[in-house]
Design goal:
The chain is mainly beta and 182 residues long. The protein has one domain (2-178): Porin. Helix content is 0%, strand content 57%. The protein has no helices and 14 strands. It has strands spanning 2-4, 7-12, 20-34, 37-50, 70-71, 78-80, 86-88, 91-102, 111-123, 132-133, 139-150, 153-164, 171-172, 174-178. Strands 1, 2, 3, 4, 8, 9, 11, 12 and 14 form a nine-stranded antiparallel sheet that branches. A three-stranded antiparallel sheet has the order 7-6-10, with no helix packed on it. A hairpin with a 2-residue loop joins β11 and β12 (153-164). The termini are close together.
Length: 182
């Protein structure tokens, strides 16, 4: 059993050309259900606010990919209606339920599996009007993933299927990454 609650603040404006406060809060709870079977709950929250100016597009959050499986990075959140480009979000949350378990193969192979359920949303940008698409609607996906502890470090492959989404969201069923979550 274990918990973790990292909190991160970024402050810009002490000499640069942009001024904002960006906050990220993460909470994690792990619980051993049986030997080698671990259930986990994770929550990620974020907000960015400009000081006397709009938050620039590259200072916003782009949610998806490994953080929200089943969606591309920047796949949810404010979008330009004409081009379909992601404009980033000033607010987001992602909640994850996951169960990790062995595959019944020899431990020396270093392979484990996990079932997951991701729920969240990303919204808000200093850009608004009829040319933008933005919604606080909940998005959700379910899936299965595998981790191989290779000689080069852990490699993750996830297959996620979004079942709650907006028409303009960008999906991506396969996600590939290095390292693991703790």
């Amino acid at each position: 059993m274990g918990t973790s609650f990292p909190w991160k603040n970024d402050v810009a404006g002490l000499g640069g050309d942009t001024k904002y406060l960006r906050t990220n809060l993460r909470g994690e709870y792990y619980y051993p259900v049986m030997p080698e079977v671990v259930a986990s709950l994770r929550a990620n929250l974020g907000n960015v606010v400009g000081f006397g100016e709009d938050v620039r597009i590259n200072d916003r959050f782009y949610i998806g990919g490994e953080e929200f499986r089943g969606f591309r990075t920047g796949g949810i959140g404010t979008r330009d209606k004409a081009t379909g480009d992601a404009l980033g979000a000033q607010n987001y949350y992602v909640l994850t339920q996951e169960v990790s378990f062995p595959l019944g193969l020899p431990k020396e192979l270093g392979l484990t599996a996990r079932l997951f359920h991701d729920v969240g949303s990303a919204w808000g940008a200093d850009v608004s009007g009829p040319g933008t698409l933005d919604s606080t609607s909940i998005r959700a996906s379910v899936g299965i993933g595998f981790t191989w502890v290779s000689p080069f470090g852990p490699i993750r492959v996830d297959f996620g299927i979004p079942y709650l989404k907006q028409k303009y969201d960008r999906t991506q069923n396969f996600t590939f990454g290095f390292a693991t979550r703790y």
